[in-house]
Design brief:
Layout (H helix, E strand, L loop, with lengths): L2 H13 L2 H7 L4 H15 L4 E4 L2 E4 L1 H26 L6 E8 H6 L1 H11 L3 E8 L1 H9 L5 E5 L6 E15 L4 H5 L4 H4 L3 E5 L4 H13 L4 E6 L2 H9 L5 E4 H10 L3 E3 L7 E10 L6 H13 L5 H4 L4 H8 L1
Parallel strand pairs: 3-4, 3-5, 7-8
Antiparallel strand pairs: 1-2, 5-11, 6-9, 6-10, 6-11
C-alpha cells in the first residue's frame, strides 16, 4: 500500500469523481484509476461504486476511510515533527491537560509561550489525569499536564503543588472568623465538584479521617458552576486555589483555612514520553515550564492560607 494510493482514494471521496480527483492531484485519469484499482486489489474489495455521473463509497470504502485519514494525518505529523527538530519558528505542539489546569493555569503559560514562539500552533485536549496519561501513551499528545503520576514509559517533573481549600461566600461566618473547624463544616450545605476527580478523593479522605459525614447538597461537574452557587450563598465547597484566586481577589469568594490544619495538596507535574530527544518545539515548552516553576522553589508549593491560619489560631 502506497501513500499515492491513499491520497488518490481521499481525493476521489472528496470530489466524487475520478476526473476531478486526477485534476486535483495533477495526474492523468488513467493513472489515478490505476492507483485506485491497485488499492482495491490489495484490499480485496471494491471501494467505490462506479456510476454514470460519479462515484460513491461502498460499505468497505466507508469502513476504510477513517483509517486512511488517520494514516495520512500521522504522516503529516511526522513531517512536522521532523521539521520541528530543526527550529522552533514554526510547528505544532499537542498538549493534554487536566481540566482545572487547562482552565486556570495553562492560559498564562500559553500566553508566555506564544509571545516567545508566535509561529507554533498549539492544540489542547482535556480530560481527567488518567485520561491525559492514556493520551500521552497513545501519542495523541506530546506533553501532559496533570496530577503527579508514575508510569514506566513516562518521564515526569513536579511543577507545583495545588492546594485544595474551603471556599465560602465572603459574608459567611467562617469567612468573617477567618478560620473554620472541619467539624463545623460537616453541618453546612456542601457542594461537591466531580465525585470522580482527584480533588474529591482527597477531600473524602480528610472528612473520613475526621470521622464526620458531610452534608452534601449538590454534586456538580463544573468548577465554574460550583463557584456561581457559592457566590449566591447556596453552600460551601472545597476547590483548587488556582480556580478561585481571581474571585478571592475581587471579593466575591473567600478561601477559609481549617482550624485543624488539614492541608489538602495535589502535586502537579508535566509528563512526556521517555525519549532520547523531545524535539525543539516540545523542548522549548518544557524549558518555559521549568523557568516558570523552578525545582525547589518554595513559593510554588506554599500553602496560600498558611499565614492566615497561623494568625487565626495563634
Amino acid at each position: 500500500m502506497e501513500i499515492g494510493q491513499l491520497e488518490a482514494f481521499l481525493q476521489v471521496v472528496q470530489y466524487h469523481s475520478f476526473s476531478h480527483a486526477a485534476e486535483a492531484l495533477e495526474l492523468t485519469q488513467p493513472s489515478l484509476s490505476a492507483r485506485i484499482l491497485s488499492l482495491e486489489r490489495e484490499m480485496g474489495e471494491p471501494l467505490f461504486h462506479r456510476m454514470g455521473r460519479g462515484v460513491r463509497l461502498t460499505d468497505a470504502g466507508r469502513a476504510f476511510m477513517p483509517y486512511v485519514e488517520r494514516a495520512l494525518q500521522s504522516l503529516k505529523d511526522a513531517r512536522d515533527a521532523v521539521d520541528a527538530t530543526h527550529h522552533t519558528s514554526t510547528g505544532k505542539l499537542r498538549i493534554g491537560s487536566a481540566r482545572a489546569i487547562c482552565a486556570y493555569v495553562l492560559p498564562h503559560i500559553l500566553e508566555t509561550f506564544h509571545a516567545a514562539h508566535p509561529g507554533i500552533d498549539v492544540a489542547i485536549k482535556t480530560g481527567r489525569s488518567s485520561e491525559v496519561l492514556e493520551m500521552l501513551l497513545a501519542e495523541e499528545v506530546q506533553v501532559g499536564l496533570t496530577r503527579t503520576m508514575v508510569h514506566q514509559d513516562i518521564e515526569s517533573r513536579h511543577l507545583y503543588d495545588e492546594h485544595v481549600v474551603l471556599v465560602t461566600h465572603p459574608t459567611h461566618p467562617f469567612a468573617r472568623a477567618g478560620v473554620a473547624s472541619i467539624y463545623a463544616v460537616a453541618h453546612e450545605p456542601l457542594i461537591l465538584y466531580d465525585k470522580d476527580s482527584t480533588y474529591f478523593v482527597l477531600i473524602n479522605r480528610v472528612v473520613r479521617e475526621a470521622g464526620i459525614v458531610p452534608n452534601v447538597q449538590m454534586d456538580l461537574d463544573s468548577i465554574e458552576a460550583t463557584k456561581r452557587m457559592i457566590e449566591r450563598g447556596l453552600g460551601l465547597s472545597f476547590l483548587p486555589y488556582n480556580s478561585i484566586a481571581a474571585e478571592v481577589e475581587q471579593g466575591s469568594l473567600a478561601a477559609v483555612p481549617l482550624r485543624e490544619g488539614h492541608d489538602v495538596v495535589l502535586p502537579t507535574s508535566v509528563m512526556v514520553r521517555k525519549a532520547g530527544s523531545q524535539g525543539a518545539v516540545v523542548q522549548a515548552f518544557l524549558d518555559l515550564l521549568y523557568t516558570l516553576y523552578p525545582e525547589g522553589l518554595a513559593a510554588a508549593s506554599r500553602d496560600p492560607l498558611a499565614e492566615r491560619r497561623r494568625v487565626a489560631v495563634g
